[in-house]
Amino acid sequence: MKTVIAIDSLKGSLSSLEAGDAIRTAICRVQQNADVVIRPLADGGEGTVEALTHGMGGALQTVSVTGPLGEPVRAVYGIVRGDTAVIEMSAAAGLTLVDAAKRNPLYTTTYGVGELIRHAIGQGCRRFIVGIGGSATNDGGVGMLQALGYGMLDHEGRQVPFGAMGVKELATITQDEVLPELRDCTFRIACDVTNPLCGTAGCSAVFGPQKGATPAMITAMDGWLKQYAALAGRSFSRADPQRSGTGAAGGLGFAFLTFTNAVLESGIQIVLDETRLEDYVKTADLVITGEGRIDGQTVMGKAPIGVAAMAKKYGKPVVAFAGCVTPAAKTCNEHGIDAYFPILQRTESLAECLKPETARQNMIDTVEQVFRLLATAIHTI
């Protein structure tokens, strides 16, 4: 029996490949000569760089870039197939990089995201996969564009300062110093939000509060972004602040769509395409997936459901494993997951359950018992 494993990370415990290896260990306890294939899985958010880079035989790069507060941070991205960079914007401009007391989108910048792209271009990359979730910023991607050579200038011809305050002062956009290689680059942007740039559903109103914005700041930033979009529209035909996803990551979605050769796509779809999972699933006898927590939100475009949908395209049975499940997880049975199992073996503290060694052993023990049942059922039939 050929089993294909594509399981998302159990955040805080096991990476995608570590979880897959634990499942393979369990299967081989029951079937010594089992045919098991492990493929990396992520949804375009946290863990995507590690999953795709390690899973596709790539190499991680560590670079010092400008963090969201303007101070240096060490950011990691991956290079796969020699010409494809895998980047998470949160590595350079993420909310987790800013202490709660210091969160203020008036000053946080995406400049470091542009530096990561610039570094990858210098390494020969021309294809980019970029996850843009978890941002600390609301600068419309202005910082990123500055790092790529765009002149984002005030009325006196100087580069505007970092953050939304820079958007406020923006008067002119120039292209004279843009990195020439940028025209040859393509960007697949993992984006699962549909918010426009501005308005009541825009990035300032919806995501601003979690980044430290007050009601007065939200109103001001929304107005500045409207002016920015109008200014961009004078020279860039793709500028459309009402387009779905332009409000992602504090307007970074707008910057990518307007100033680069980019498309916004479902994160899981990008990962499934790039890892060519379909080539493996269509010849499988069983597909295994899962994530840290299977609940009612799992069916809302999360990685396991993407795997299940692909498997059902070929009529393959799907089993999922998770650190925990909730009653609402039953909806997954209606979306391609035939059966799911929590791996918790005993009553323990959350801290203990999250230890990698505990999670690995729980995964092995649970999967082994499921496969013993499968082996018995197949033999009986």
TrEMBL record:
Q: Which residues form the signal peptide?
A: none
On the tree of life, the source organism's domain of life is Bacteria
Q: Which Gene3D superfamilies match?
A: Glycerate kinase, domain 1, Glycerate kinase, domain 2
Give the matching InterPro entries: Glyc_kinase_flavodox-like_fold, Glycerate_kinase, Glycerate_kinase_RE-like, Glycerate_kinase_sf
Name the keywords, alphabetized.
Answer: Kinase, Transferase
Coiled-coil regions, chain positions: none
Q: What is its EC number?
A: 2.7.1.31
Q: Which Pfam families match?
A: Gly_kinase
> What family, per the record?
Belongs to the glycerate kinase type-1 family.
This chain's protein is named Glycerate kinase
Biological source species? Megasphaera vaginalis
